[in-house]
Amino acid sequence: MTKLIVLIVIILGVIAVAQLVRMYELSSKLRNRREEDIPNRDNRLNATLLLVFMFAFFASVLYLFAEYGYTGRGEAASVHGKSTDWLMDLNMLIITAVFFLTNGLLFGFAFKYVRKPGVKAYWFPHDNRLELVWTVIPAIVLAVIIILGLKSWNEQTDKSPDEAIRIELFSKQFDWTVRMAGDDNKLGYFDYKLTNENNPLALMTTKTIQDAIDSMENSSSGIHALESKLNNPKLMFVPEDHALMVKDLARKERMVRMLYQLKARHNSALDTRVMDDIVFNANDTLFLCKGQDYEFNFRSKDVIHSAYMPHFRAQMNTVPGQTTRFKFRPTITTTEMREKMHNPQFNYILMCNKICGSSHYKMKLIVVVLDKPAYKKWYARVSKLDPKAADACKTFRNTYAVGKPKAAAPADSTAVATAPAMDSAAIVKTL
Ligand SMILES: [Cu+2]
Question: Do 400 and 305 share a structural domain?
Fold first, then answer.
């Protein structure tokens, strides 16, 4: 009913406007004036209104800049974040200058060159110098922006120094898992074919390869079970089910062949690379050390995710089937940042920046930057924990709960806001 009334009002409104225009035309005719003859008074009014609009427009833009800063980013907490910010500032400076210039000309000229009776417009169809100016200047500006951008991109994705700590971030719907390279500072190898419940990161050791072969052959839905079902003369299947089972068997046989190849090629001396890696719980805190170089590797199990750390100005897509990477060095500890921001609740954060599914918003990780002594204490503690735990590597099951929300619901959308206050001293105490 309401919709119908709204519709009727809109239709009546359109008719009314059409009638008004018609009346205006008729009255012009009565006064013996042609339709396109606009009274001078109207022209001047419009010119003035355009100028008024320009000033209101500029004032509102300046107000928003002053009120919110022009990007709302806050201070960059990494070395390359500073250079990214410098680039951003340069871009904004150019954009702002061009914005005021072009809009000033647009509205200023509309005011200045308002139609005046008896003045004929100057015929100005082409000017080579002008064309040159507005082609060459933007080309130079763009080239400068692109060259500077490429320069900082190359710096950020350049080879890491040897002493950079290697960290892998493994993403899947819908969490992040942190794997640190451990004492040898080398990340162990992995292969997607080794993925199973006990080895969610598909890490490669002699044992995990053998486990994968065993489960492919001997599990309840494994090759042997399938074969004995299909070969059992006492069992009858609907043709569709039979076809599905044959297909499944073929897939598993292909898989196990590849696993045997993997086994044949595997060098057991590389097992230790995996064994000393430190794997944290999914969605557990990422601890970093101030002033330390990091080499980040990213993997995805399912779809494209993106690791976004806004305070470090760092972002990289995580792509299934391929390892992506970047490096960075944090420069401000969590404690220092809290003081700078006057916010004792502040935490650095890593979040997924690709819409990757229904619970995309849950994909976040709290990042804590410690100073060197606190980091050393923390690392000494985690690297010694439970050295022979689990199958593949040191795995920590809730051995600490620093930086996690105390509420029962772990990584909901309010996790950041409700994360308990902490400083490096408190973290070391809880460890
Ligand atoms: Cu995601």
Answer: yes
